[in-house]
Amino acid sequence: MRRTMEIVQLCRALSENKSHDSMSFRDIQQALYELAYHVVKGNLKHDQASNVLGDVIEFREDMPSILADVFCILDIETSCLEEKSKRDHFTQLVLACLYLVSDTVLKERLDPETLESLGLIKQSQQFNQKSVKIKTKLFYKQQKFNLLREENEGYAKLIAELGQDLSGNITSDLILENIKSLIGCFNLDPNRVLDIILEVYECRPEYDDFFVPLIESYMYMCEPQTLCHILGFKFKFYQDPSGETPSSLYRVAAVLLQHNLIDLEDLYVHLLPGDNAIIEEHKREIVEAKQIVRKLTMVVLSSEKTEEKEKEKEKEEEKTEKPPDNQKLGLLEALLKIGDWQHAQSIMDQMPPFYATSHKPIAIALCQLVHVTIEPLYRRVGVPKGAKGSPISSLPNKRAPKQADSFEDLRKEVFNMLCYLGPHLSHDPILFAKVVRLGKAFMKEFQSDGSKQEDKEKMEILFSCLLSITDQVLLPSLSLMDCNACMSEELWGMFKTFPYQYRYRLYGQWKNETYNSHPLLVKVKAQTIDRAKYIMKRLTKENVKPSGRQIGKLSHSNPTILFDYILSQIQKYDNLITPVVDSLKYLTSLNYDVLAYCIIEALANPEKERMKHDDTTISSWLQSLASFCGAVFRKYPIELAGLLQYVANQLKAGKSFDLLILKEVVQKMAGIEITEEMTMEQLEAMTGGEQLKAEGGYFGQIRNTKKSSQRLKDALLDHDLALPLCLLMAQQRNGVIFQEGGEKHLKLVGKLYDQCHDTLVQFGGFLASNLSTEDYIKRVPSIDVLCNEFHTPHDAAFFLSRPMYAHHISSKYDELKKAEKGNKQQHKVHKYITSCELVMAPVHDAVISLHLPKVWDDISPQFYATFWSLTMYDLAVPHSSYDREVNKLKVQMKAIDDNQEMPPNKKKKEKERCTALQDKLLEEEKKQLEHVQRVLQRLKLEKDNWLLAKSTKNETITKFLQLCIFPRCIFSAIDAVYCAHFVELVHQQKTPNFSTLLCYDRVFSDIIYTVASCTENEASRYGRFLCCMLETVTRWHSDRVIYEKECGNYPGFLTILRATGFDGGNKADQLDYENFRHVVHKWHYKLTKASVHCLETGEYTHIRNILIVLTKILPWYPKVLNLGQALERRVHKICQEEKEKRPDLYALAMGYSGQLKSRKPFMIPENEFHHKDPPARNAVAATVQNGPGGAGMPTSLTINTVRLEEGTTEETDKLKEKSQGVVKVINKAVNATPKVTTSNGNSASNSKIIKEKDDKEKSGKEKDKEKKDKTPAATPEMKALGKDGKDKPKEERANKDDKAREIKEKTPKSDKEKEKVKKEEKASKEEKSKTVVTIVESKSTAEKEREKEPSRERDVAKEIKSKENAKGGEKMPVAGSLKSPVPRSETSESEREQKRRKVDTHSSPSHSSTVKDNLNELKDSSAKHYINHTTPTLSKSKEREVDKKDLDKSRERSREREKKDEKDRKDRKRDHSNSDREVPQDSTKRRKEENGTTGSSKHSKSESPSDSPRLNEKEKEKNKSKSSGKEKGDSIKAEKMEKSSSGSKKESRHDKEKTEKKEKRDSTGGKEEKKHHKSSDKHR
User: Is the pTM here over 0.90, yes or no?
Assistant: First the structure.
């Protein structure tokens, strides 16, 4: 108790003593501690202690706090003790003192477990957590203002220190010392100080040099991460959705990064948005771009359109919400602005490609950095002359990329920067232009020689970098620019220095890859296509200008996409070509080049088929593209090298389809047209000089091709493509057939071959007329090298060399003229010949290697070279063409004079142009005339050495045709004319050892093989050749005077019979005019035979080619009516057969058929075509001498012509039958053209009939012989036919009689018809009486009329007999026969006729002995033709007169006899119908047995033009007979005729005697028939 009282007093005393504050505080603490400790020990009860403490507590204010401290110490001490009692004592003490100390204070000071045991808190663990949180909140989570508020003075001083004027000599070190003092003095937070330094730096960005060292120095006192964290906290502050990071912060961060005060990796994580979000956004953009594309390409119906628009508007409104701030991009922009390229690059690397630069501020910042970097180099090499430009100052920053002073420096940074820019260089067109100009300057340096090897390697690397930049940056940027034509032209300035291979590679990448690399480009592509569609839909000829401007605008930026679409449209619609070509005039040079690339790409498209589905024609898309190519390359200055190389590459690969392109380009650019449809006038003009060709040689007027042809020439020469293209085309001709042709349709192979050949001719023509002599000679090797090393076909090789020889000779000639001034014509000619010898001598030597030595036995190398080296220009002057063109110009001038509307100055200009042209033409004509005279002189001197005659003339002609004529005549249309002209020239020059006759004979004799092996165009040229040959022959044939003058004593018409087993002697004789006409007839016949054979094969090429050839030779063939009719029938058959199957053949056949009909009035009967005057009997002896040789071929010709005639007469009969009602009109026509009348054999005299019978006998024998001699394969059949000859006429006669009766029954019986019927009956009765011999049976009345022409084809002895019988039975009834109205007495006519026949038969073979080998055949046959076809014209006219006199008598007689006749006719009908049935079967059986196979029958088809379709014709005729009365009559006759004629051919020899007996009987019957004939004629 006492102790407690002491403590109380002590505490009071201590509390009162206020002087030593600290000491008394400790003493009180100690006193209280001791008191409490006694309680813990158990020395003092806790309630006593609490009372004491209650007393003490009032002494001081802080006494509870002191007590709480004491409790705290004891708490720690007791918690460590092991004795639990002490702890309990302590707890009780505290509980007792709770009223003295507040809970709050205790909670602060005591341990949580103690508090829990005291019941002050529920759970110590929760309390702990709460306290930690509170402590953290209190001590670590500082409110910024708190620090400033606490020490605002210190911070104010700090800000004043940093914000002072720094312009004096204040350094960062000095300021740093001050800052340290402030921190120490005011206890400032160092982190907060750093933060304030950064804030001030943000506001004073111009003081980099001050703040950066300051921060750097300050950072030595801090942890390295602090600065980065503080910046991170700053950035985080702005990351609210509405926050916007200030650019000043970005800049500060950028500068600190550049000075390596912070690491990018550390700062990057503090920036938003995250990389994943950026990648997602990029993907979203791509998807959106694709959706836009889909929308643009979709076809939207109008109802849907409005909905779509509304949706789009909503979406756009949503999008307008501001996107959150992208701090990474902000920092990137700041880095670029200060020139920290390394850090900027590493940021961009972490983003998708071009994502960063797709934001305009970044793109512009990067562009600015590039501007600065390239400035010195650009000022040195890039500034165009005269341009000032605005220099750009370098960055003040020493750490910025080094500026480029050389091209090598560009590689270090600039190219890299540009690659990161990509398409977004479009934001800065000025930089675009600068880069392009630097590229141009580099290319200039790169292409100049003289640099070292190391430099060259560096330059190569730089060049490839430049190409990459162009591909990745320049072209895509151009796409995003808004139609900037200047940029396009600027870029072309650089592009044109690249080889086209590089350019096209770039365009390819641009078109096919670049547009898919970026969402923006994807959109642009879609918009371009959409716009292109819009323009193309509205493009027409009328709005070319406005549409062209729109196309131009669109093309400046996106040419590849635009042209790709335009070309796709052109491939579909070829009528767009002209408007599109016209609308392309607003393009830039670069665009034209891109267009060339796009065309090539379209051509090379592997997905497109080059053939139509039928595989026989070239696809229309290819034809359209080719046509577009030609037009566009001609009109605009587009580089051609790529296109030409493409064609060359295709040829190398063995593909010739694309030659179509070359053909079109050459045609349009050079004005050289290749067409098979040339008229003869154009062809003639093409043989003149260049001016005449241009004026009259082409369909369209070719004007203004000078520039375009020069461009084409330059392209070929610059890239060395002229000769390679020629050689490739020449080689490809065979490639088409043997390699490329493979599986293709024959028609297509022919087309490709023609295209290849035509293009070669056209291209060669272009080179010849446009290359200078030096260029040409330098490029084209000699002929032996061309053929032997380059394997060029000979015709093509000479075609290429020919201009070279001409150039060479003319230049040599000019040299010689200059050397000597002699002006005499002789001197000139001599010099010309000398120059020819100089030039051609090496050629003569060179050609020897082209063929086997044996060849040169027949023709000399000189002749061969001369033939191949000359052209039509050298042989003849087309005076008529020159005159025609000059007259045209005169007419033009007159029209100009007459034109009142034309302004005078224009009149003057036009007239001057016409006058100049006229003078040029006249000058050219004069020049050519002199040239031709010189050439002819040269040929005159050469000719004796041409043909060496070491072997037969036949061999010589063979070699000439084989090596010269045939290859060249199908080379081009002009060459075809040249060949014909050359043959005539060789003849006119009286060339030794050249048989003109043999040459023509070989050309005309069998054209089947040559025609069958031609392509379509070759057939056309071959036709031209034949036409010109026929023209010459026809000219000689037309007039004896011309013949005598031009062929009379020429060696070419010498006919030599060589010793070939008939007789030993050699005879020389000149072919006379009449025999020549026989020969010409034989040629005509041969042509007919070949034509009919080809038409009947059914082969596409045979039919097409022969129709083409026939169309070409139409002016001169057919001239003979019966041959024409045979052709007409076959062609008509083709028309019917091919109408549905092969429409192209049908069209050809219809075309020819129409033209043939229009020529019909000009055809003449055979007896007028080759007709002989009475003398020249001596010819018979010659025939006899010739023996079998003479009789070989002619017979076949005779027989075949008979068949032809039979065929043709069917048709003419129909015409006659129809024309019965208009006899008067026909008579007039007959008067005008008696030729037509006679050809049909319409004067059917008895004498002729008798003659026919005799002739038939002989023809049977002759035919056998002919078949043996000519075609062995046909022999068995011929034998069979010979045997069957006896049986067949029965059938024929029966048919004839039946049908005659049918006609009578079915037709109304007018007087005239009755008369006719009577005549027919009578005739048939008489025939009945003569049925002993089969051959005679076949001669019914209608048949006799038909067989007038065949009757002319028989032998001599029979004609003599027929003459004796002739006087009586001249008249036979002929349905609808036309008679010549010339009055003559019957008897005298028939006598005259018989005499003429007699003469003819003797004289006809006169020439047969005079020709060697095949000429023997040739002449015999023609002689026979002559014999067979000389029916007198006059017989008809005489008959006609007599008819008129006897008209009345015959009418009366006819009425009396009518009944009787009808009865007889019925009887006859019965008889003959029986014989009809028997005969055909026998004959066919026999034929089959003898032949064994059908092969020989095919042969016979080819032998005679009219054989094969005979059965069909019979059937047709029978069908027709049912349709109408008159037609029946005709068809019956036609049928009878055919049968009878074939029967006559098949007769065997032992029938001869029977026929002779019967003929005698005939002569009496003939007289009666004559009367009937008169009466029927009168009725008609």
Answer: no
